Fold this protein.
Amino acid sequence: MAILLAWRGLMFLVLLAGGGQASDNTKKCNLTAENPSERKVLSLLEPLTNQNFTAPTTSGEKYTYIFQVCGDADGMKDAGVVQKSVDGKQVPIGRYNSTQVYGGNDWVMLIYKGGETYDGHCSQEERRAIIMISCNRNTLAGQLSVVLENRDRNKECFYLFELDSSAVCPVIPSKLSAGSILLIVAFCCLAVYLIGGFLYQRLVVGAKGVEQFPNYAFWSEIGNLSADGCDFVCRSRGSRDEPPTYRGVPTEPVEEPEERDDHLLPM
């Protein structure tokens, strides 16, 4: 059980580090000039897809603006930005099937063309919307705001919107080395193993005392074997009991036996 919990914890960390499988909702946008660099910039906006961003109306205004990244804003087919009046009328001012995108170090400019034509402005050309998305690490998606509606010109009129998001922020390089990351993963797995094993032994098995330690018999046997090996390699206790095989020369002079030949002298 404890091993299973540790394995699940490891898999969770791997998925967390990998960030999961990225979707490809931004591919719904048709670029006016398809090229890999623009597509790569557009892919940065993937976390912002499948959600509407609404610019709040202020006093005196009669329109609300709804924006969606590569999706139907306010449910309107092919419309990336919709102007909605107080009576509910929807006017597409930019379509995501005619998209341009530019990117910098900490910003992305998304342009939707092909909106509904003006009635009496800008030589009755098609409307277009420019959404300036700037880096803000404190929020995934801030409040959409209307910066400018430029229609007092003959051509190339536009609506300008602004949105803050952490999705376009540059990636901060990790200061951790590969060895440090492996150690963190190892310690996390060890913590999952110990905590999960402790809870299993205590709550399921009903163990008490040191028996609550997961796989206590296995680890205690490992400890005993390690101690025996250390004792065998590092200690020389067995050689002290053997009798010495070498006897040193005595330092005191050896006494010569006294010759007793007095009986040979004449009396």
Remarks:
- Helices lie at 2-18, 36-43, 178-205, 216-234.
- Residues 178-205 form the longest helix (28 residues).
- DSSP finds four helices and eight strands in the chain.
